[in-house]
Amino acid sequence: ENNRLRDNLESVEKRLDVAITVMEDIAQRDNNFYRVMMQADPISDSQRYAGLERNEAYEGLSDGELVNNVTDRSEMLDSMIYTQIKSFDSLREMASSQQDRLDHIPSIQPIAYEDMKQMASGYGYRVDPVYGTTKFHEGMDFASAVGTKVYATGAGTVLSAGWKSAYGNLIEIDHGYGYITRYAHLSKIDVKPGQKVSRGFYIGQVGNTGKSTGPHLHYEVRHNGVPQNPVNYYFQDLTPEQYADMVRASDAAAHVMD
To answer: Angle, to 10 degrees, between the axis of helix 64-96 and the axis of helix 2-29?
Structure first.
């Protein structure tokens, strides 16, 4: 019976470890994206783990360390869940008073999910397909057929719409609040500088112009001039499963097309 209980405890410990890993990922997204988006201070580790103390109730028993580990992890998970719920409650209150900001921040894919052939390359260091050197890829490449419709990812004003060197045909949209998005290598541009657009507004078509090795859309998100990982800005139009697939594809994709 003790052996069975020990096995059960070890199984519970493993499940708790997985749950805590998931919560740590949620906490990281909370601090690095959601609270940044709302211009709210991140939650410190001392706040997330407030009140946690080492449980010594089972010290001295043969399996006391195992029981203590499970108890500690359980209390840690409870604390993380409680803190995260309170954080989401406060963010919801902020969101209700910042609807204009939410309307303008990029938050959907620039091409429809069903129109995307594959994720050609994600954000980060990649090998340049033309020069063979390592460079930092400041956006994401969506492989898709020429003529695939491209959409504005948030409300804003068209800054520029025309040819720009290696970008080929490029559209830049100023969303306000420090955000700018770029849509490159287009085959067709259907907006003009100064034009107001809303989220989901059709702006042009996928192409193969400029420094490009195949039909695709190069998409960038910049905040206060600093490139952001676009994968963090698709929270309005993807299911959790689609978002998880997108993250995996972005991390794995290494074939830069520009």
So the answer is: 30
In angstroms, the Cα distances linking 163 to 160, 167, 184, 205, 209 are 9, 7, 9, 14, 9
d(CA 26, CA 80): 10
Q: Which residue has the higher pLDDT, 112 or 158?
A: 158
Question: Helix or strand or coil: residue 224?
Answer: coil
Q: What is the distance of C-alpha 97 from the center of its chain?
A: 23
Local structure of residue 34 (DSSP, 8 states): I
Confidence of residue 243 (pLDDT cuts 50, 70, 90): low
Mean pLDDT, residues 179-206? 96
The residue with tokens 């360390």 is 65
Contact between 141 and 256 under an 8 Å Cβ cutoff? The reply is: yes
C-alpha 78/C-alpha 120 separation (Å) is: 40
CA 53/CA 227 separation, integer angstroms: 41
What are the residues whose beta carbons fall under 8 Å from the beta carbon of 168, sequence distance 6 or more? Answer: 184, 185, 186, 207, 208, 209, 210, 211, 212
pLDDT score of 184: 96
More confident residue, 135 or 195: 195
- In angstroms, the Cα distances linking 104 to 37, 88, 107 are 11, 20, 9
- pLDDT value at position 20? 85
What gap in Å lies between CA 209 and CA 164, rounded to an integer? 10
Global confidence as pTM:
0.61
